[in-house]
Design a protein that fits this description.
globular; 2 strands; kinase activity; 97 residues
Length: 97
């Protein structure tokens, strides 16, 4: 991917953040994450691969925030059977590696 397209992805993510109503509508992390995804998916300036990359970056940030703030819905890890916050990895299993 060229530098120009990476800048376009950054601009789309920044635009998504700026459109978020943190106080009235998107007042919790789950609502914010859903809004980010829907906004990026509807952004016509990005091609499919760029949408995927932008959403992947939003996912990573969402998982990091959940773990750092110790908030959100917990799930049971299939490997270690502990409750974890991130949905695409287990913060406990990552520590072991």
């Amino acid at each position: 991917m060229s530098t120009i397209r990476q800048e376009l992805i950054n601009a789309a993510i920044n635009k998504t953040y700026s459109l978020t109503d943190y106080y009235n509508i998107h007042n919790n992390s789950h609502k914010q994450y859903e809004f980010y995804q829907q906004t990026l998916l509807s952004d016509e300036s990005l091609i499919k691969d760029e949408n995927v990359k932008a959403i992947r970056r939003i996912n990573e940030a969402s998982h990091r925030d959940k773990v750092m703030k110790n908030s959100g819905t917990r799930r049971i890890c299939e490997n270690c059977n502990k409750e974890c916050l991130a949905t695409s990895y287990c913060e406990y299993c990552v520590q072991i590696i």
